Amino acid sequence: MGQRILVVEDDDGIAVPLVRTLSREGYEVERVAEGATAVSRALGDGFSLVVLDLGLPDIDGLDVCRQLRDEGFAGGIIILTARDGELDRVVGLDVGADDYIAKPFALAELLARLRALLRRSAAALTVATPATPEGAASAGTLAVDADARRVFSGDREVALSTKEFDLLELLDRNRGAVVTRERLMDEVWDENWFGSTKTLDVTIARLRQKLEDAGAEARITTIRGVGFRLDDGAADA
Q: Which of 35, 95, 165, 220 could form a disulfide with 56 if both were Cys (CB 3.0 to 4.6 A apart)?
């Protein structure tokens, strides 16, 4: 069975050809037209990725994205919208989206972005009995399990989006060393990303907040003009 994709789009002129194209690519595709339905379907039925329009008839797509992340949806989210301003992109990423494509769009570009995101999120939806990785027994100790794509602060699992996990895993792999902004952009967003580097700052800020909320004994330090470093010890109050 192919990976499951939920298309959330109320415009038949966009949704019908998009669903047809994705189905031909071998994905299992479901389409819904309302935000409330999208939240319940995405949370309850093992979707790997959500393609999300913002201009929905009942709930703004940004609120849908926020609800999905707040409820622990770990798959990819690509926002698809006619809102093309820099502020709209930043707000979309700030509430948990992994990518942002403006309408009108080329199907080839969407497919390239989608494939790149699915490659990174394929392991994130593995269903397993929660278990704390070895070494995470102490309260607040940050443990990153790259194979299972799971993060723990002590015995508490931290729910991260695909891009948040990819950033943290790369920083953790180089814990104590500076990782440049260029390397983070290249390895986490890859060659298909043509957006602003503000995307990195927004995602780092969101990741910092989640680590702080989880009481993690680790902090992301900004090295101005260079990049970021993951250090042991909680963030300063």
A: 35
Q: Do 78 and 49 touch, CB atoms closer than 8 A?
A: yes
Strand, coil or helix: 170: helix
Please tell me the distance from the alpha carbon of residue 133 to that of residue 141, in angstroms, as a whole number. 11
| pTM exceeds 0.85, yes or no | no
Where exactly does CATH 1.10.10.10 map onto the chain? 142-232
CATH fold group of domain 4-125: Rossmann fold (3.40.50)
Q: Which fold has domain 142-232?
A: Arc Repressor Mutant, subunit A (1.10.10)
Find the helix or strand (DSSP H, E) in which 144 lies: strand 142-145
The pLDDT tens digits along the chain (237 residues) read: 468 999 999 999 999 999 999 999 999 999 999 999 999 999 887 898 999 998 899 999 999 998 998 888 888 899 987 766 666 667 777 788 888 888 888 888 889 888 888 876 654 444 333 444 444 445 678 999 988 888 999 888 888 888 889 999 999 999 999 999 999 988 887 655 555 567 788 889 889 988 998 899 999 999 998 999 999 887 664
